[in-house]
Amino acid sequence: MRSILGIVGSPREGGNTHQLVERVLAAARAEGAETRLFACAGKTIQPCAACDACIDGRTDLCVIDDDMQPLYPLLRWADAIVFGSPVYMGTITAQLKAIFDRARPLWRQPGGLLHKAAAAVVVGEGRWGRQEHAFQTIYWAALNHGMVIPGPDCEVCGVADAPGDIQRDAQALAAADDLGRRLARMTLRLG
Known about the structure:
The protein is an alpha/beta fold. The chain has one domain (3-186): Rossmann fold (3-Layer(aba) Sandwich), CATH 3.40.50. Helices cover 35% and strands 17% of the residues. It contains five helices and five strands. The mean pLDDT is 92.
């Protein structure tokens, strides 16, 4: 069985981005994949302190003791990772950016992020209204970690303004179902 991790970069518990990432994971589970979800809501993930302890070999993981620590084993476990973020100021949330920065210790480790599939779920107030930059930010960060973007259809663009609006976005819901199925099938082939 292959493994797919969903990371929700929203500070809102159970918000629109969370619902859409969970929908991707549900579709993947229906195809036989094992899934897990890590949500930033209610967690503290500090920014990278640029101490370089993780790079020069003084430690295997980041020296900052916060809610990033439980995410490291999940990042190693996953064959594919779905990164979800609402659009904040035209890009991803600070929470998701901190995760990408703090994943730096995995660069030097076997079983880090290298060659894992990356997908993106982004929710904004209008269809393709500022989501493009958020997608690009996710993909550039994933590529910087050596991840693979397995095709042009590995993203879901959601439109929501108020809590629960995502449930009325039929296009995003269908795309989330399709993404989950494709990731499950893709990771099974990659395995």
